[in-house]
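$ fold --in a.seq
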Amino acid sequence: MLDTVFVVAGYIDHSAPSYHDLPRSVSPDDHRRFTLDPWYGWGDNGTTYRLYLGATPDEPVDGMFSYLPCMPAAGEQSGFARPAVFLHPFVNPSLRMQARSSALVKAEVVSGAWRAVADSVMDAGLFFGTGLTLRSTLVSIPAISRITRSGQAMPDAVAALERSRAGR
């Protein structure tokens, strides 16, 4: 089941002495408060960690961007089935909840796999959530991306994806 598509656009290394210097654009106050401060709260063990930066519809990597499948809320108990993804060798359904990485492959192969996943999301009638907002109750909710079927303005990467789907 697809929960999140994360396309790496870059990274920033950080450590206990340097994490306070991370730009607020990549490490806002809530990220520091709920992730980094507790992480480094035990002291400096000399380890450097990596903060990965996700590609966005406004700044895609080879036409790909990070998203989570979503749909507009329909009340307190709304939900939806996540699309199933079958992309051998990138996704192995038998590895439930286990971290795994794939060997590096050509960009066009990855782009084709990304496109197949994006198509399955849209075929399921879902949208691309491309931002998260922390509510005052500290519950994270997806923000519906600007992809619509009613012609509203969309980032170039999303609009290009919609145009190419319309031409199939």
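$ fold --in b.seq
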Amino acid sequence: MLKKRILSSTFLLIILIGTLSIDNRKLFPIFLALITAISIWEWSCLTLSHFLKQYLSLPVSILFFIGMLILINNWFSGGNFLVRQEMFLMLLTDFIWVFFVIPSVFLGNIKTNRETSIWFFFGLLANFVCWSLLTLNYLNRGTWFIISLLGLVWVVDVLAYFLGKFFGKKNYLQKLALEKP
């Protein structure tokens, strides 16, 4: 498990550094759009029923990728489509996260009701909001802001992994980690 995490993070880090080091400001938002489309595909495979997964996962991911490319083009052409609405979308996502997702996880409903369209649509919204916030912050604040933000996420992720490895022997929330004894 740790080997896979190190390999995938190293691979993504190399691609990230490559896209940020090239003197083309459009390349990094396109890279983020591709990663987001892959994330949407993976999320739809997790949340849709087997029947819907076959027919919707890839087309929805491709449509989102095309939509993100259109937005990138709009933003680089001087347009501000969805820039003002971004704050509303972010607040809506935060509201859903705090009042629905977190309680659902702690109540243990996440495992049984995983294949519902509600989780699918929330995943689409959350992925899109994360992509647009990262892209707009990259365009407005620059490369170093994004690197520091991603570095913070990586450090917290690695710390959570090791803290879980060392202190996670006892299962305090049985509904969340069914595999643990």
